[in-house]
Amino acid sequence: MKSRILVAAVLVYLFGTITIAPMAMGSSNRIVMYTALQQAEMDDLLHAFKKATGIDVDFVCLPAGEITTRIRAEASNPQVDIFLGGSSEMHDPLAKDGLLVKYDSPVAKEIDKAFHDPNGYWHGWYLGALGIVINRDRFKAEMPPGTQYPKTWDDLLNPAYKGKFVTSNPSTAGGAYIFMVTQIFRLGEERAFQFLKELDKNVSHYTPSAPAPIQLVATGQFLAGMSWGHDILRVRSQGYPIDLVYPQDTGWEIGCVSIVKGGPNTEAAKKFVDWVLSKEAGEINTRNSMRYSARKDVPPPAGVPPLSSIKLVDYDRKWANENADRLKKKWESTIRR
Questions:
Q1: In the 8-state DSSP scheme, what is residue 153?
Q2: Which residue from 22, 50, 102, 164 could staple onto 120, CB 3.0 to 4.6 Å apart?
Q3: What are the CB-based long-range contacts (under 8 Å, 24+) for 315-320?
Q4: pLDDT tens digits, 23-74
Q5: What share of the chain is helix, strand, coil (3-state, %, to 5)?
């Protein structure tokens, strides 16, 4: 399995697409996916899926924004069956452009309908909230005496963070897009872009994926960054000197799964959707990734605060989806270096 993943990843890097081995094409016992999850999170998940169904999975890990780009580029000859992970803001535009398969999974009724596309093109299976990751050693050594951890997004405008803060690109990272829209929902669009311009003065650079800033902060290359809280907690559990802050009025995601239209193994892909919405998959994902499950019968991971304890912004997902292209272009023209 790992060798097939590596070959696929190399082909993506070299040629901008992947060529699926003949045994995968049209086989009822193998599916292919792009996933925005980390490889370490995938192994247990896919092992359990194989045990439950007998179906193998080949996958390539990419930032959610890059996945959407590839699905569009391959529309005339789809190379994958499943888009796994990434927020609904990444899946919804693909659905609107006719690139996903409508599928009313019978397991979806076990999850709150608020976490599914009302038209049936994507299904939510986990939840996450945005947070600030801080390297506690660098914070103690470099921030002015008496400085406390940031409690709000506005606290990141402190000039003491200049060149020491790293975040991701909203054009390629679903988390970064949700971060941008979060500022709009708490400030209004004009003030939000003023905030983003001010924050840009402190940003060292923008990474392609939302999880990338965590490792940069964890290894001491930067003092602070923005990413998903569950990913921060997962890295902290590995012994790195980092802390997580959930600022007031933070954004949150519905992590989704969808079926790519015209993929080689659509019927097997439907079986994967059914399984990934199950309690078993929710428990595995929660245990390995520290994400919140969309299922009410899967408790939060050990040591993770309940989602109800985090002050979430009033997030209008429909508006965020409808304005995604416009807002990304606006960010590219006004913020990106």
A1: G
A2: 102
A3: 315/178, 315/181, 315/182, 315/185, 315/251, 315/252, 316/185, 317/88, 317/89, 317/254, 320/89, 320/177, 320/178, 320/181
A4: 344 557 999 999 999 888 999 999 999 999 999 999 999 988 899 999 999 9
A5: 45, 20, 35
Pairing state of beta strands 242-245 and 123-135? antiparallel
CATH number assigned to the domain covering 129-252+310-334: 3.40.190.10
Kindly tell me the burial class for residue 148, based on how many C-beta atoms sit within 10 Å of its own C-beta (0-12, 13-18, 19 or more): exposed
Q: Any idea what DSSP says for residue 17? A: S
- By C-alpha distance, which of 300, 331, 309, 323 is closest to 127? 300
User: Which tens digits make up the pLDDT trace of 288-312?
Assistant: 999 999 999 999 888 888 888 999 9
Tokens in use for 298? 């899967």
Q: In Å, what is the CA distance from 100 to each residue of 18, 93, 165, 216?
A: 19, 10, 37, 34
Per domain, the residue ranges of the chain are: 2-127+253-304, 129-252+310-334
For helices 88-96 and 324-334, the axis angle rounded to 10 degrees is 120
Contact of 196 with 247, CB cutoff 8 Å: no
- In CATH, the number for domain 2-127+253-304 is 3.40.190.10
Give Cα 287 to chain centroid, integer Å: 17
Residue type, 13: Y
Map tokens 């939060």 to a residue.
300
What predicted TM-score, i.e. pTM, was given to this entire model? 0.81
List helix spans (H) across 112-211: 136-142, 174-187, 189-200
Distance CA 40, CA 38 (A): 5
